[in-house]
Amino acid sequence: MTSKEHSGGGSQLEELNGFTNPGLPEHKPRLADSDPRAEKVAERQVAAWFILSMIGTIWFIVAYFLFTPGESMQSIRLHNMFVGLGAAVAMFSIGFGAVLWAKNLMSDHEGIDERHDIGGSEEDQAIALEILHQAKEESGIARRPLIRNTLIAALAIAPLPAVLVFRDLGPLPGDKLFNTLWEKGTRLIRDPGGIPSVDSERPIKADEVTIGSAYHVLPSGIGDHEASDHPINEKAKAAVLLMRIDPKELKEDPDRKDWSHDGIVAYSKICTHVGCPVALYEHQTHHLLCPCHQSTFDVTEHCKVIFGPAKRPLPQLPITVDSEGYLVAQSDFPEPVGPTFWEINHP
Predict the structure, then answer these.
(1) Distance, CA of 302 to CA of 158 (rounded, Å)
(2) CA neighbor of 53 nearest in space, from 140, 146, 147, 157
(3) For 185-206, what is each residue's pLDDT tens digit?
(4) Alpha-carbon distance 259 to 280, whole Å?
(5) 91, 184, 216, 260: which one has the fewest Cβ atoms less than 10 Å from its Cβ?
(6) Domain ranges of the chain
C-alpha cells in the first residue's frame, strides 16, 4: 500500500468519526539543505561538540589523578566535583552533537512504512541492505569524514573513565576485614561525625546508656596523632551501633553471654548485604533496619536476619566495663565485617 492509499484509508476512517485526515505537512527545506556554507557550518558545529566530548573525557582522566581524595571531606568533594564535571561534559557533548547532526544534516523527509510480515527471504535481505545503504546516504556519514572521525574518536575514548572507576574497585579485601581498629581495652566513644579529634572524643559509661537508647560509636584513639593516618574506610569499618534493652528480653547463646553488659550490646554498623550503614533502630521491636534494601536484624537474638536480602547476622563486638565504669571492647570482632559477597577467605 502506498502512502497515498494509506492516507486515503485513514481519511475514510477518520471521516467516520467526523474528522478529515490532513495528510503529511508540506516539507520545508532547511537552510543547510540549500546553502553549502550553512551546511559546512552545521557540520563543524557537530564536530566541535564531539571534540568537546573528547576534552571532557581527557579532563576526567586528568582530574582523577590530579585531585586525589584525601581524608578530608573537602578533598573528596573536589575530587567528585571535577571528575563528575568531566564525565558530564563527555556524555552531554556526544548526545548534543548527535541531536544537532540529526536536526540539521540528516534527511528530514517524512514517510509512512507499512508493517510487513517478518521473514528472511532474499528479497527481504536485499531490502534491508538497501535501507542501510539509504540510511548511510541520508545521514551523510560516508561523505562527512570530519563528523565521522570526530564521533569515532569521541566514542573510542568515552569508556576510559569507566575503566578508571572499575579499577578503583581493587582486589578482594582478603583477610583485611578480619582486623579493625578495635582491640582489647579500647573504650567506646560517641561518633562525633567527620574526622574525629582528641578533643571530640567522649567515652561512654555504662550507666549513661538508658534502655531504648542507641549510639553510633567508634574506638577511642581514632582521633589522636597516631590514628590520624587511618583512612576514612578504616573508620567506617570500625563503626558500631550500641544499644541497651531489658536483659530479660535478650536471647543470648551460652557462649556469648559475656559479650554484653547488663543489656548493653554492640554490633557492626555495616550491613552484611552490600555494605550500607545500618542506622535505623526501632526500640519497641528491637529491630535494626538497613535503609538501602530493608534488611532487618533482631537485636534480641544476636542481630539475626528476620527480613530482607542479607544472609548473615551483623557481627557482634564483645564489650565489658573497665574499672572506671566506661564501656570497653573485649577484643576485635570475632568475624569479618561487611558484605558476604566479598567471599573473604581467612588464612
Answers:
(1) 48
(2) 157
(3) 999 998 766 555 555 678 899 8
(4) 22
(5) 184
(6) 3-167, 176-342
Tell me which architecture the domain covering 176-342 has in CATH: 3-layer Sandwich (2.102)
37 or 119, greater pLDDT: 37
| The pLDDT value given to residue 144 | 84
